[in-house]
Specification:
Helix content: 25-40%
Shape: globular
CATH superfamily: Alpha-D-phosphohexomutase, C-terminal domain
Oligomer: single chain
CATH class: Alpha Beta
Structural class: alpha+beta
CATH topology: TATA-Binding Protein
Strand content: 35-45%
Length: 137
């Protein structure tokens, strides 16, 4: 297993952790404890063709200096889980300009997500305009 860590600078770490765990709980095991200021995301092992793909676990901790994320996954899956967790968090924090920058336990930099443009998110959530040439068909 490899560990990758990100400290996301925000004045509202518990709010973002709660939002992230609530959203992710629709597909994976996700918990948040307001009193403890911590929680976790547990990604199950998945089927990838003929073999089982690796799962991952992320520990979340609300701190005074931001939201701490500790990701544990097999080395070949770390970048994938960094992207999944990081882009969700960056999108939730688009108005605050959240940036998630990961660092691996060996000191090498991981991936980075954000900041996400809030206008871009708003535009993507609107239905695409109808093609005028298709209107009367």
């Amino acid at each position: 297993m490899t560990t990758s860590t990100a400290l996301v600078a925000t004045e509202r770490p518990a709010r973002y952790a709660k939002q992230l765990t609530s959203h992710m709980s629709r597909k994976i095991d996700a918990t948040w404890d307001d009193a403890a200021g911590s929680g976790s995301l547990t990604f199950p092992r998945i089927d990838e063709g003929d073999r089982r793909g690796p799962g991952a676990r992320v520990h979340l901790e609300a701190r005074e200096d931001g939201l701490l994320l500790d990701l544990d996954a097999e080395e070949d899956a770390v970048a994938r889980y960094e992207e999944i967790v990081g882009i969700h968090l960056a999108r939730f924090g688009a108005k605050d300009g959240l940036v998630v920058s990961w660092a691996h336990e060996d000191g090498t930099p991981g991936s980075s997500q954000g900041p996400v443009d809030p206008d871009e998110l708003r535009d993507r959530s609107r239905p695409a305009p109808m093609d005028p040439s298709m209107e009367h068909q």
